[in-house]
Amino acid sequence: MTSKKGIALLMVLWVLTILMVIAMSFSFMTRTEMFATLSFKSGIEKKFLAEAGLERGIMELYYRDIYRHQTVELEGLGVWKTDGTPYQGEVGDGFYVVRIVDESGKVDINTASELLLKNLLVNAGVDVDDADIIVDSVMDWKDEDDLHRLHGAENDYYSSLPNPYKAKNADFDTLEELLLVKGMTPEVLYGNKERKGIIEFLTLHSKAALININAAPKEVLAALPGMSPEIADSIISYRETKEIMGVQELQGIIGDNLNAIEPYISTEGTDTFTIDAYGSKGNEKGSYAVRATVVISAAEDTHKYLYYKSPSNIYQ
Predict the structure, then answer these.
(1) Which domain holds residue 15?
(2) 3-state secondary structure the chain
(3) What is the pLDDT of residue 66?
(4) Number of domains into which the chain is organized
(5) Is the pTM of this model over 0.85?
(6) Could you read off the pLDDT of 8-49 as tens digits, one per residue?
């Protein structure tokens, strides 16, 4: 009888142990699911906040386009700038940050001069020799012949790669296509948390070799021949209070350097803009980023998306 009671006690203890393990596992799974749900909920809320910022940016561009067609001075009207200036709005317990850049303030990869593109790469931290390889290879990629420049590459190089392909010999259709070009790396193109990638300052949509001095970010201004960081800062400070109406207006800021810079700049904008919107909640870490390139036509009350990415791998 004693032996049977001992066996029964052991069985009871084993059953209790198993039940405790099951209960703890269930509690752990429930806790994990709860945190996953909260994280998913927070992510969705940040996404909608970013989308709200994107829509706000489009609305502000409509206002801007209407005023410009009425030849109204934009200063003092609260019109958003299109040079990457950040604007913030609140929605409930969350907020969004929106930056808009006119595509005319970027370097058009299909029309830019070799010197401008090289300066942009060097200023982004690319070694001079590597910059020469990338620039010559970009030019070889889009020209129509099979003759390569001193540091460039054509079919003979690309055909020798482990996964061979041919040079396009035509204009770029996407900026991501640059990754196919000799010398270009994801780090140079997309950047990291310490340094912006050059994709932030490139475009396919300005269709012009000139840079709009009113919309160009500091990195693009600094890439202009004859431009110094001090002059770039002065131009940015000047346009914070007044839109530059003509290149000669910069004579007092640039001085004798204007002759070197003038062939590369203009004050003409476009109707195509890139909008970066970030959604955040309260004191929570992290944000959700959305990027879109849109064409605005206020006269026809329409807009068209040329590019949209959600989430976007851009750094605020």
Answers:
(1) 1-124+196-316
(2) CHHHHHHHHHHHHHHHHHHHHHHHHHHHHHHHHHHHHHHHHHHHHHHHHHHHHHHHHHHHHHHHHHHHHCCCCCCCCCCCCCEEEEEEEEECCEEEEEEEEEHHHCEECCCCCHHHHHHHHHHCCCCHHHHHHHHHHHHHHHCCCCCCCCCCCCHHHHCCCCCCCCCCCCCCCCHHHHHHCCCCCHHHHHECCCCECHHHHEECCCCCCCEECCCCCHHHHHHCCCCCHHHHHHHHHHHCCCCCCCHHHHHHHHHHHHHHHHHHEECCCCCEEEEEEEEEECCCCCCEEEEEEEEEECCCCEEEEEEEECCCCCCC
(3) 67
(4) 1
(5) no
(6) 777 878 888 888 888 888 787 877 777 677 667 778 888 999
